[in-house]
Design goal:
By secondary structure, the chain is an alpha+beta fold. Helix content is 48%, strand content 20%. The protein is built from 13 helices and eleven strands.
């Protein structure tokens, strides 16, 4: 097999591949054995039609596509390796010659990983940020503890307030006609959360349990459904039940109930210590992220659009998974946010672009500084993961290996070591 790589423009090029005639004929043999099992010819059982008779009746050309399906993946993979390129998307393949007894010739138009021209990445400085623990932040943390241990109490009398958990039935109508996706029963809604279309929750506030009400809202102009975009709609809403948080008092009894301490002062001191540990970690993370962003800003990269699109695919998938953990789907999120997937992708695009730039920059710095993940580094990482997941390191290694995850683990460790290098070479301390 022979491969020739010719860069055309930016990050695209053409990979011309020639595959020996002997391999073509071998692939045609495999294709025949597969196809003949499905062919019916009078006088012969399935799978028993002679090759010459098959070709005379159907033509050897009928085997070409199956033979190509056999040849192309392996030939393309070997050609990519031989040419020393790193494709970032599926190639566009054009078969120039495919014939029995002759060399297979195909051209693959390929988008490859871009070259990175590194700028300054040593002795970087970043904007300072205050991570000190204040009385206000301590009070806010104690307030959150109160919220977490609050009792949800059913409200029998009185109007709904922001912060209440309202259970509602609703159905939406536009010009008197119910629209798809606008109906739900026993839907739990935290008032003031901003989950629904603007103006909806504000009109639930003030309702009493058992009350029914028509709520009028206007869908955003950019709403994903053209039938509703910019239109006024009426939701028939019934408030089925209402729950309100009953916050416990911040006193010694509260400290005893939620911790191992006997007094509120002891709980405060412990909370402050934990906040200081947390903010120290946040500062470390901030420094690392800012240094990576700064190094990426200083680099010159002609970023292929397809790499950003692939990153967006991953980010939308991650977002959908987070919604599922919260009991919501992407479809329901789109209905109540007024967005569609295209708008969500546009919203995430800047972050996706940044992710790809920083990833490419760190990879380039790692190569420039000969930073590698050693077997010892990976063993250390596996031991850390074993402590987190409570499973033996050897078992985790087998899981990673079975799922083709060891290469990714090596990359993760190398990336972390590269960021460690940036911190060590910077003008700030994490």
């Amino acid at each position: 097999m022979a491969a020739n790589w010719e860069k055309v423009e930016n990050n695209q090029g053409v990979l011309t591949v020639e595959v020996d005639a002997s391999q073509v004929d071998a692939a045609l043999d495999q294709a025949f054995k597969k196809v003949v099992q499905k062919v019916q010819v009078p006088g012969f059982r399935k799978g028993k039609v002679p090759r010459k008779m098959f070709e005379a009746r159907f033509g050897v050309e009928s085997l070409y596509q199956d033979a190509l399906d056999i040849l192309l993946p392996t030939a393309y993979g070997q050609a990519v390796k031989e040419a020393g390129i790193e494709p970032v998307d599926r190639p566009e393949v054009d078969v120039a010659q495919m014939e029995q007894g002759k060399t297979l010739i195909f051209k693959a138009t390929v988008t490859v990983k871009p070259e990175v021209k590194l700028g300054d990445y040593k002795n970087l400085s970043i904007e300072e940020k205050d991570f000190s623990v204040t009385e206000e932040s301590l009070d806010a943390e104690l307030k959150r503890m109160q919220e977490r241990h609050a009792e949800l109490v059913a409200v029998e009398e009185g109007a709904a307030q922001n912060g209440d958990l309202a259970v509602i039935d609703f159905e939406g109508f536009q010009d008197g006609v119910a629209f798809e996706g606008g109906k739900a029963e026993d839907y739990s809604l935290e008032l003031g959360s901003g989950t629904f279309i603007a103006g909806f929750e504000e009109q639930v506030v003030g309702m009493n349990v058992g009350e029914e009400k028509d709520i009028t809202v206007t869908f955003p102009e950019e709403y994903h459904s053209p039938n509703l975009a910019g239109k006024e709609a009426v939701f028939k809403v019934k408030l089925s039940s209402l729950k309100r948080k009953n916050l416990p008092a911040l006193d010694d009894e509260f400290a005893k109930d939620v911790s191992e301490f006997d007094t509120l002062e002891e709980l405060k001191a412990d909370t402050k210590k934990k906040l200081e540990e947390k903010t120290a970690q946040e500062k470390d993370q901030y420094v690392r992220e800012q240094l990576v962003l700064k190094a990426a800003e200083n680099a010159e990269i002609d970023l292929p659009a397809v790499m950003v699109e692939h990153e967006l695919d991953q980010m939308v998938s991650e977002f959908g998974q987070r919604l599922q953990y919260q009991g919501m789907t992407l479809e329901l999120y789109f209905q109540f946010s007024g967005m569609d997937e295209s708008q969500l992708r546009d919203q995430l695009r800047a972050d996706a672009t940044s992710r790809v730039r920083t990833s490419l920059t760190l990879e380039a710095i790692g190569k420039a500084e000969n930073i590698e993940a050693t077997e010892e580094d990976v063993n250390e990482e596996l031991n850390k993961l074993a402590g987190v997941y409570g499973r033996p390191a050897d078992e985790l290694r087998k899981i990673f290996s079975a799922q083709d995850g060891m290469a990714a683990l090596y990359r993760d460790v190398q990336t972390r070591k590269t960021v460690d290098f940036l911190v060590a070479e910077s003008k700030v301390s994490a």
